[in-house]
């Protein structure tokens, strides 16, 4: 069994980006600039946004965070997005999700200029992804592709089973891995809450992607000997430790890992790659590659 070290791979990619960014700055160009908009005080969102800021600093990008009150109106948020859409010194921006209930998330996402949509959540970005055109790939599935590629895991012709059909992970990774691309060219089966024989399907996976958002859902009996297991889950489980909690994924790591050829740990697997993907997308936006 080989551990896919997302932390190490993310660190390697950040070093590569830091070099590219230093080259720009040496030339006298401005640094790539990522903006995050955070509405309200959701604890997890605050942590994510702080990690994004830290990652920008590490690679020499400029980062700005707009922290807005929880009762910020939808119109005010749309006004800020309009400003960011038109600011030439902003390469890309994200609106951190979830948003407070009084704001229409889809309306907000649709208001983002697709050329600055580094989350890849805009219908235009998702449509381009479907067509295999240059676009911003959503951060988590893009991170998974990079983990597979940098770990030299063959995907062509493999049966990939994706557990979960969310708009930000399950659905896009299913499309991305089924495309004629490298990594890709998989036969993909997507399982979800309507799937009747999920366990039997999971057992046939060469590559199993667990993204259904249920702690420790995937057990050893659901995994084929020699499978590659990618665990997208992040769950805080309260315990009596000093910190008061520990983090688990969607996979029962201890019992599943011995059966795998490759597996991602949680934390330290997919998680660190998500932010790195956002940095890559920011660099693409800066270079007007989309
Ligand atoms: N909340 C959880 N994941 C994400 C993400 O990838 N992007 C944004 N904007 N919000 C999130």
Could you walk me through the main structural features you see in this protein, from its secondary elements to its overall organization?
- The structure is a single chain.
- By secondary structure, the protein is an alpha/beta fold.
- The protein folds into two domains: 28-119, Rossmann fold, CATH 3.40.50; 139-270, NAD(P)-binding Rossmann-like Domain (Rossmann fold), CATH 3.40.50.
- 39% of the residues lie in helices and 17% in strands.
- It is built from ten helices and eleven strands.
- The protein has helices spanning 6-26, 43-59, 74-86, 105-110, 123-131, 139-150, 170-178, 198-202, 253-256, 271-286, and strands at 2-3, 33-39, 62-68, 92-95, 159-163, 187-191, 207-210, 228-231, 235-238, 245-248, 262-263.
- A six-stranded parallel beta sheet has the order 1-11-8-7-5-6. Strands 3-2-4 form a three-stranded parallel beta sheet. The chain has a two-stranded antiparallel ribbon with strand order 9-10.
- 42% of the residues are buried.
- Bound molecules: guanine.
SSE layout:
Elements (H helix, E strand, L loop, with lengths): L1 E2 L2 H21 L6 E7 L3 H17 L2 E7 L5 H13 L5 E4 L9 H6 L12 H9 L7 H12 L8 E5 L6 H9 L8 E5 L6 H5 L4 E4 L17 E4 L3 E4 L6 E4 L4 H4 L5 E2 L7 H16 L4
Parallel strand pairs: 1-11, 2-3, 2-4, 5-6, 5-7, 7-8, 8-11
Antiparallel strand pairs: 9-10
């Amino acid at each position: 069994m080989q551990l896919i070290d997302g932390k190490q791979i993310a660190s390697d990619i950040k070093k590569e980006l830091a070099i590219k960014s230093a080259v720009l700055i040496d030339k006298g160009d401005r640094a790539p600039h990522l903006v995050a908009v955070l509405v309200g005080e959701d604890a997890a969102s605050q942590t994510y946004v702080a990690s994004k800021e830290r990652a920008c600093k590490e690679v020499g990008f400029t980062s700005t965070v707009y922290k807005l009150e929880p009762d910020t109106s939808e119109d005010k948020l749309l006004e800020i997005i309009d400003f960011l859409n038109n600011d030439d010194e902003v390469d890309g921006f994200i609106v951190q999700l979830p948003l407070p209930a009084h704001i229409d998330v889809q309306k907000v996402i649709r208001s983002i200029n697709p050329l600055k949509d580094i989350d890849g959540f805009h219908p235009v970005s998702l449509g381009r992804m479907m067509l295999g055109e240059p676009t911003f790939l959503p951060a988590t599935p893009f991170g998974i592709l990079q983990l597979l590629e940098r770990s030299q895991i063959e995907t062509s012709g493999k049966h990939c089973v994706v557990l979960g059909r969310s708009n930000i992970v399950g659905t896009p990774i299913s499309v991305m891995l089924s495309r004629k691309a490298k990594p890709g060219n998989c036969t993909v089966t997507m399982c979800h809450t309507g799937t009747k024989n999920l366990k039997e399907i999971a057992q046939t996976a060469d590559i199993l992607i667990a993204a259904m958002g249920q702690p420790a859902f995937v057990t050893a009996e659901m995994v084929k000997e020699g499978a590659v297991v990618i665990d997208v889950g992040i769950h805080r489980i309260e315990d009596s430790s000093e910190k008061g909690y520990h983090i688990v994924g969607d996979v029962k790591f201890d019992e599943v890992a011995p059966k795998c050829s490759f597996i991602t740990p949680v934390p330290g697997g997919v998680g660190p790659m998500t932010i790195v993907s956002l940095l890559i997308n920011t660099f693409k936006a800066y270079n007007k590659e989309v």
